[in-house]
Structures are given as structure tokens and as C-alpha cells.
Amino acid sequence: MVRITRVYTGTGDEGETSLVDGSRVLKTHPRLQVVGTLDELNSILGMVLMEVNRMPTKHSDGGQRKNVQEVQNISLLGIKRIQQELFDIGAELACPIDNVPKGIQLLDQEVGDLLLSEMDSMQNELEPLESFILPGGVAPIANLHLARTVVRRAERHLIQLINQEGEKSVRTFVREYFNRLSDWLFIFARWVSKRLDEEEFLWIPIDKRARSNSISKILEEQQSRFDFD
After folding, report:
1. What angle do CA 110, 115, 121 make, to 5 degrees?
2. Which of 23, 37, 42, 167 matches a 20 to 30 Å C-alpha distance to 174?
3. Structure pTM?
4. pLDDT in tens, 117-157
5. Does residue 115 lie within any of the structural domains?
């Protein structure tokens, strides 16, 4: 078990930090860019769980909102597991692949395959997409869309690390996991929308959109009412 008695060390005051193997690098190193982005992602997933748990589980008449309870249960199981996996991957990436301490256990392909299986299960409940989805919706859904974009940023940092240190600097599994996780979060956001009966925000092609969605007229009308009052 990990035992932490003090958080601050003072050793990073000059812009450097230690990797898990003890080597010192700048805090802007691509390896730390990936690890830091995973930490950010994990925090956003924590926000998703917070927002899911804040949803009322009863109707105004006292009846149970079973769909909300289902979303809460599935979110707790799926996202908590992914948070653990992100921490595992962060620990793996926080040191050169040829010097991973023996105490660090590495995730295996079964974890990535599980994401695929879960995506298939969720897709069975969803209608095929006929347009791109714009980020939005109630808080849990909006934060899931934010999370998937942060995964893509982590993936870009990962590719930068590979370009700098070589193909063998990162396990193939890790690259695949990032790619699959972003898709998983996208599909999960759609699944939550479906279960909560929330409308998805779809992208509308230019030739089908209203020519002007200017808010100026609305603001002028509001100002007129305000002046009259």
C-alpha cells in the first residue's frame, strides 16, 4: 500500500520534477504532459459522478425515477473503474518503459477489450447518428463531452512523447486504450442522454440553418421592455 505523510517536497520549485524511477525532467516534458492531462481527465470524471449523484431520484409526486437510478448505478460502476485505470496508466507513463518499478502492475489487453464490449452494449440502445453531436445538455452529459476531448488531448501528448522517445517508449495497449476511451465516453454520453430522455444537440449543415441567429433583435426587445417598465 502507498503511504503518504507529506504532500509538499519543495524539490519542484525550479520547474523540474522526478519521474517514478527517480530521474529528473522538466515539468514541460511530453511524458509529464500526458500524465498531467490524465490527472485533469480524472478530475472531470469526478465532476461527472458528482453531477450524476445530484440528480433527483424521485418525482415531485414521490414516485421513483428508475431511469435516473440506473444512470447513477452504471456511472458509478463504469466511471469509477475507469478512474482507477487512468491512475494505473498515469503511474506507468510516469517513468521510462524500460525502468518501470516492480511494484507497478500494468493493465492488460482485457481492459481495452472491455471498453469495446461495453460500447457495443450501449450502442444496442441507441439510434444511428444522422448528424454530428454538439457538446451540451445537462451537466453530466456536458462534462462527458468535455472528458472525451481531454482524452484526445492526452492522446496527442502521447504521440508527441512517442515521436520524441521512439515507438517503443509506450506500450501499444496504452495508445489503443486512449483511442477507445474517447469513443467510450462519447457513446456513454449518448447513452445517458437516451436514458434521461434528453434531446441531443445536433450539428445542422449551413444550407439548412437559419440565415441569421443574431441575438441583437432579442436584446433590443428586452431593452425596450426594460425602458418601458
Report:
1. 120
2. 23
3. 0.82
4. 999 999 999 988 888 888 888 899 999 999 999 999 999 99
5. yes
